[in-house]
Amino acid sequence: MEKKNIDWSNLGFGYVDTDKRFVSNYKNGAWDEGALVSDPNVVINECAGVLQYAQTCFEGMKAYTTEDGHIVTFRPDLNAQRMEESCKRLEMPVYPQDKFVEAVIKTVEANAAYVPPYGTGATLYIRPYMFGSSAVIGVKPAQEYQFRVFTTPVGPYFKGGVKPLTIRVSDIDRAAPNGTGHIKAGLNYAMSLYNIVDAHNQGFDENMYLDAATKTYVEETGGANFIFVTKDGKVVTPKSGTILPSITRRSLLTVAKDYLGLEVEERRIHKDELKDFAECGLCGTAAVISPVGKIVDHGTEICLPSGMTEMGPVTKKLYDTLTGIQMGRLEAPKGWIHVIQ
Ligand code: PLP
Ligand code: COI
Question: Which atom of ligand 2 is nearest to the CA of 189?
Fold first, then answer.
């Protein structure tokens, strides 16, 4: 299979049309078999549940080319599980988890020419998603749904690659207690757009959200969880029922413990602790681990000792080990790597 003529090493995090996408429709209480199609456009009724009441959720995952030339994906079963949680919370029909993984594999296989070659720094981003496609005008769930998977080759999520970021403590909340912060609902991202545009306009790369109830505990950013490293080398991540349970973060805790022999803690993190950490990073499928160099809390600058030029040493080890596992340079824990081709 010949790869597409793409400047892989200079890709940003953007949409590139690829050859095929998977589509399955839910009607009369059942999903159809689904198929790969060529048309990237979606035609739905003007009154579709997704258009009127934002009834939609999604997942984000990646396919990698390993050092020995295989195409693999990382823990797709966990994305399938999380999408099930999202669907249930949004009164959407669950797309069966085994079928979800099958659809992802089929879509990646059909777009193998777009999976960036090993060593380019790029990956194939995979976006499974679902939306209410039939008309609803009263506030209620749609009767019909579409599940789709598309792919797009991507480079780093943040401009500048691994240059440490400057973030600000946000006044706007991301997720209410007992709300939808723990699922991947499109509405969580729509409501964050005002705040991310404002952050960029003020010279910040991202927003650090605090818990909405007390405004004291660190939650996450608009698209990634936090990891912190203490001055004595412990890896600490926020525990909260209102953040997205990041697959990257959960994997990093295992990597820290089992590969690097580090102590790990998942607990509430008070914002007053921020000044005591040695390193900070944003972790997620898109973000991988993006180091944070500075956190600005209403005029007070918290400068991480790891500085503004490179990743801190522990963050770097976590990054190298995680990407080493994903790219096949290091042996993965059982079940983490799903070989596609
Ligand atoms: N938090 C939010 C709000 C996200 O959108 C994402 C991206 O999926 C993450 C965290 C990271 O999750 P994961 O590591 O599963 O990609
Ligand atoms: C991901 O990391 O896959 C996400 O969905 C986050 C999004 C902000 C791109």
Answer: 8
